[in-house]
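Q: I'm teaching a short session on how sequence maps to structure, and I want students to see two examples side by side rather than one. Could you give me a first protein with its sequence written out and its structure tokens following it? Keep the formatting plain so it prints cleanly on a handout.
A: Of course. Example one:
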Amino acid sequence: MRFLLGALSVSLLLAADPERDFSGVWILNHARSNIAAMPWAAEPTLRIEQNDASITIAGGTGSRVIATNGQASTQSYAGHNLSSMTKWEGSALLLHSLASQGRGFTLADRLRLSRDRSTLTIRRQFQQGAVEHESTLVYIRDGAQLSTANTAEPAPKAVIVKPQPRSLTIRAGTPLLLRVAHTLSTKQAVPGHRFYFEVAVPLTAEHTVVIPAGAQVAGRVLESARAGRAKGRAELLLQFDSITLENGTHREIRARASSADGKPVNEDDGRIRQGGDKASDAAKVGGAASTGANVGSRMPRGGAAVGAAAGAAAGLAGVLIGRGADVVLEAGSTLEILLDRDLSFTPSDLALR
């Protein structure tokens, strides 16, 4: 019964906004497509399944399952390990992916349906280093009229979308995925320590890349606490205060960490904590004392009782002297932050200098 209610709620959601439902089998129309360099060949057929939390895109090179609720997800596709995030712009779905292995690259797809839902257009931007290519892939829904698929409409030319005269704004609350440039941990970091991360996945506004991959985000350590002896967890509180684009454009920002490679993050202030809890700490102490007691009971001098007590004290002391694990943000790992204020840029801010 619960499954039926869940399926019904998903169906009602997609029916309420059909322009956001890309489900179906789609056939590539080569005549209307303009295909530039891409990390893999354009799929001649796409099978898309979608619900309120994710979208599954299957082609000739594999299948990708991507969350559509703003959370990051990882997939292996066409021999590449991808980290992906999505964002809705009206009825268009923006899909940003990062491949970090090898030379690495970023991929930005914009999926949009025609009004009659018979045509799916994917605008794809592929960037590797300083080289960028843009393709337009036009798919026709399987079973649509041939006249629709074979229309004489000229193929759109691949162009790089230029900034509009008005300001482009990244809104507060937008997640920004960063790559850690240099290892940062509670073992070395002290309050006031400066750090620099790189933007891993570009951010767009009105179909224009505003914050490109490679932009530098700077900040400082506010608090750095190592784990206590026998209890407590290491904590790291970071303040992100500026972002600098590759052309030198600089903005002050306010942001807090929201996820850090699986480490728990406090939702209120973005404090990053090492995994573990008091229960596991207590078990560690109890286990050490028990082991020490077993060893001490075999001590010949003073009797078994005295030996066990001494052994238990020695085992406990070993735990109390040692510290728990540090919070470590390894170089090359990713960290997601949430912007606490709007960021606006003019076309001149984004121009090459």
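Q: Perfect. Now a second example for contrast.
A: Example two:
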Amino acid sequence: MNVNLRGRVQRILDVMVREGYANTKSEAIRLAIINFGDEHMTEEFLVKKKLDRIDKEIEHGKRKVLNSKEALGEYSRHLE
């Protein structure tokens, strides 16, 4: 894959290589992607995102919320 980078991105890559954070620009890009994943793709973040999506589905009537009796069906008699 070839990517054309200019401006600020190019300057950041140059600094990362010059300062020894990475040996090549490709390695610097890989490190940046990993860093992004570590900051934004944590399990906590992904769970929150899914719960927010479920809340919106409920709000728009696309998902039904059951009470305990509805969820248990014929076994709801054991709740009493």
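Q: What should students look for in example two?
A: Point them to this: The helical segments are 7-18, 25-40, 43-59, 68-72. Also worth mentioning: Residues 37 and 73 are 42 Å apart (CA to CA).
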